[in-house]
Amino acid sequence: MLNRPIRLGALALTVLIPTTLTVSPGSAAGSRPKVVRAVGRAKVIDAVARYRAILGPNNGGEPGSRGSGRREINWDGVPDELAAPNALPGDFFNAPTAPRARGAVLATPGDHVAVSADSDNPAHALPRFGDINASYAEQFQTFSAERLFSPVGSNVVDMTFRVPGSDVPAVVRGFGAVYTDVDLREGASFEYYDRAGRRLGSFSVPAAPQGLSFLGVAYPTPVVSRVRIRYGSTALGPNDSRRYDVAVMDDFIFGEPVPF
After folding, report:
1. Could you read off the pLDDT of 112-138 as tens digits, one per residue?
2. Strands 174-182 and 149-152, how do they pair?
3. DSSP states of 202-244 as a string?
4. DSSP string of 44-65?
5. What is the pLDDT of residues 133-183, one digit of tens each?
6. Cα dist. 110→26, 155, 232 in Å?
7. Backbone angles phi, psi at 165, to 5 degrees
8. Which residue of 31, 59, 171, 213 lies most exposed, with the fewest beta carbons within 10 A?
């Protein structure tokens, strides 16, 4: 693993380039992604800025592909009726109209995907997934207030990409996200797959118990069709312990979806 420090003001973050990686035939031969990791709020803020700069300008939530740049999801605009204790439709952020046309489709082998309640929701559910376990309301931090995202009934989410606002399959350069409360070094990870279903690589999220972590991976060209996201070592429900590591996520950042 090669560590390359990048100085941003008074803080430094490290871009990690893996020494080995399975490269899809659909990508440039021998190409390796840039990997940005950080822990702690201040360093995560810098890492997010660095990752955004790698991917390019934010294209917002307009339908259609812009060819380059990035899209983002921060969950805070999800309405109460589609937040906890209710399920979030997996295609909520691939609506055919702005501002929800982001090109992201979410699925889980568990019960459903969910966005946590805000502090004044009409169901009086505790925020930050406190409706599932009351301790989570204090345990989980937010990066951008105040909703978080997680699967329910599983610790796995598959994120596939579409041309924003359509059913046309797409690929992106990469995907990154902010985690909260990753306790174990191998407790959370991203696995990237190309359009043929071949694994491009697997990357672990740095641990930051009851704090914020960031992991972002960017390939030289758009080759990622799906990302398998692992949330800790078990589904939401139990308290954290040596046996259980529960983690949830805040902001998603990914390359502009382009058709293939």
Report:
1. 999 999 999 999 999 999 999 999 999
2. unpaired
3. EEEPPPEEEEEEEEEEE-SS--B-EEEEE-SSS-SSSPP-SS-
4. HHHHHHHHHHHH-SB-TT-SS-
5. 999 999 999 999 999 999 999 999 999 999 999 999 999 999 999 999 999
6. 31, 8, 14
7. 85, 10
8. 31
